[in-house]
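Hello again,

I reread your note about wanting to compare the complex against the isolated chains. To keep things tidy I'm splitting this into two emails, and this first one only covers the full assembly. Below are the input lines as submitted, including protein chains and any nucleic acid or small-molecule components. They are followed by the predicted structure of everything together. The single-chain runs will come separately.
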Amino acid sequence: GENVEQHPSTLSVQEGDSAVIKCTYSDSASNYFPWYKQELGKRPQLIIDIRSNVGEKKDQRIAVTLNKTAKHFSLHITETQPEDSAVYFCAANSGGSNYKLTFGKGTLLTVNP
Amino acid sequence: GAGVSQSPSNKVTEKGKDVELRCDPISGHTALYWYRQSLGQGLEFLIYFQGNSAPDKSGLPSDRFSAERTGGSVSTLTIQRTQQEDSAVYLCASSPGRELYEQYFGPGTRLTVT
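Full-complex prediction:
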């Protein structure tokens, strides 16, 4: 089955710096890669996703890059703010499934004012 | 509009007892998921319902776990003879249709087995 590895498990940055979280996946059939943000005590929410027909996608301060050859994808947050502090999860669809996601174990991002 | 709701928000039960967790998806969403989130872990897929199709139960960890979805809407996850390792947050999510799309999560049920 699909295996998604996420690094680092914790990340601390100063406000205004950039943050990068990286994920690798094992199933070459995967073609959908979402990122979810979970604030403390809250439910996970989708922040950005990318499909395998593109290599990069941006939405204001966040961007995701995908390298299908190397089977890894990354989340980039620029000009970080304290409200970006949360746990971020990457995911990939298993075996090219149109519904089943395998999640990474999460990255706790702390943005220090 | 109303989001995904779950009840109860917290459940403490004794080892060996049965528990039922409820999920109300967003109205009109045909896809419904259950996940388990243990401390420091990611979201572990448990089961998937899509309309009237047979559910994908491949993520259920043991035969003590079962789930139903009545009338294509509300779902209940039942854990029989609970064990301490079942302690976790159980999250439900719904999605509009058959294709991969944003999953809208509920607030979760925190289950503690003593």
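For quick reference: The beta strands of chain B are 5-7, 10-13, 19-24, 31-37, 43-50, 65-69, 75-79, 88-95, 104-105, 109-113.

B.
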